[in-house]
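cron nightly-structures :: item 1 of 1
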Amino acid sequence: MEMKLPMALTRRSLVQAVPALALAGLAPTAWAQAWPSRPLRVIVPQPPGGGFDFVARALAERLGKALGQSVVVENKPGSGTLVGTDAAAQAAPDGYTLLMGSVSNIALNMGLYDKLSYDSLRDFEPVGLAVSYSYTLMARKDLPFNSLQDVVAYAKANPGKLTYASAGNGSGQHVLAAALWHLAGAKLTHVPYRGAQAAYQDLLGGRVDLFFDLSSTARVQVNAGTVKALAVSGPERNPMHPDVPTILESGVAQLDLESWFGYFVPSRTPAEVQERLRSELAKVIAQPDLQEIFRKAGGKPLNLSSEQTRALVRRDVERWTRLVRDIGIKAE
């Protein structure tokens, strides 16, 4: 019996369909063995030069060598981290598109936007987390307080008089600070800036009182003595500021946050490909020279199993989504 093709299936569409049909006919193991047959891309939802970009490029070069294919970093900034993250969520789940994920776009965005185009836990699977960075709470040099406890006590007695800077509404600096003041029961006035550089200018100029920033960036000013370091956000003290207590140690709030960075893939990426990526990336993350690069940049290299990685991501997504919504923080 002769099978007739529908009229709509032209020669061109048939030619286009053949590779997909052939791929669908491959057993999962054969597919994984054939992958990767072309370069991969890592979508970075921030411009070149920042923390996202730094970690993405450090991993990409080494992962490319391990896979035998180049891993190309593609910066897709816009609307905070939304444009690039959504592009990754919508990408074909074939193992050729990865996302540079962090607490910012994976955890915080879930609470900051009422109608987010993606769901971090539904649409992405973590491949591996490479490094984390704590934040340091800095005060202007002449602020008459030398501890977080003193700041909170004054703010409670004088609501709204102290000011804190951020790199913009919904930024990590904003969310962390707002969460701290909320949990401590203190009211401070938020002063958003267009990026961290402008916030530093006013902090150093004495025009704003406090500013949370990544410890790796803050250490320049802390070491120079141009600001006071009052607390760090990680669960343990930061080796760069060994004399600076954590928020937990201060006793003003049960709060800790480290901004982790790592690779994610669309959740429907074949399991065999995901496992190959996890295996190769784990070897990359464990390289001593890469870990030293991260340490020198102020980061804490991570060494987590797949189960630990998933648990950490889920914990931070659920915790920060709930907290951000409780506080009522919005990105705009």
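cron nightly-structures :: done
The chain has two domains: 40-132+258-327, 134-250.
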